[in-house]
Amino acid sequence: xxxxxxxxxxxxxxxxxxxxxxxxxxxxxxxxxxxxxxxxxxxxxxxxxxxxxxxxxxxxxxxxxxxxxxxxxxxxxxxxxxxxxxxxxxxxxxxxxxxxxxxxxxxxxxxxxxxxxxxxxxxxxxxxxxxxxxxxxxxxxxxxxxxxxxxxxxxxxxxxxxxxxxxxxxxxxxxxxxxxxxxxxxxxxxxxxxxxxxxxxxxxxxxxxxxxxxxxxxxxxxxxxxxxxxxxxxxxxxxxxxxxxxxxxxxxxxxxxxxxxxxxxxxxxxxxxxxxxxxxxxxxxxxxxxxxxxxxxxxxxxxxxxxxxxxxxxxxxxxxxxxxxxxxxxxxxxx
Length: 335
What we know:
Structural class: mainly alpha
Number of helices: 13
Radius of gyration: 27 Å
Strand content: under 5%
Number of strands: 0
Distance between the termini: 22 Å
């Protein structure tokens, strides 16, 4: 493509489109039809330049022009309660369900890793002594020690907010850093499982594993599931960089990235619930069986939510992506 000849042949169409977009008054019917036609042709021109003779300045100008025209043609749509309802009943559960082949294995492998670390620490006194001094370990694991008082050491409301913030940040890191081939996600997972394994090992060596599980399970089931979902989604995003499938890598990352962004908002709600459980149920005076039952019910409710609503939404074509009008502009072709 001779870029100078191409610009000479079409610059008047781009100038006309820019002129129509700058008009302060309402367009006539003929002008509106002209604007749509010019928008389609300019989009095609942009695609041709990007593929055949990319020029940074011209590409930037036409990209902005096409974006402005698209906003004018499609109009600005405001978020509504309908959008929130669709997100909670279809978009979010569908995104989690679609990622199940990533987060379910991540959950199983991570749980097994935590159990192995716990067994290793619990059965090897020399490993325990390398973690801390014996008196420090006794203070942590004794009745009324640090492991037990941790959940009641702060006012419940502020503790719930702190827990929610920390967990939401961990989940967001998994989602955001997944694009780096998923490697940072593996580190976040390992760090979480290492902390869990250390607690299991130390409390089991003190003969108080039942107490530890009674403190962890009420909130930990839902909390860890949210982390596993975030990690699985991050890993899938990283794999998309390697293998985008039939889509272009740009389109695949855009679609999966938008779904991951929506999942971050959904997981924030899930982690908010787990934070409330950790602040108000875990340290409560309820019997251990009652606290664990509450945690199990919350976990089962989330899994049913994902597998019932999510599978149904996926069968109906839902992907967890935003609706078509809110997606990035594609490249329309003129008739």
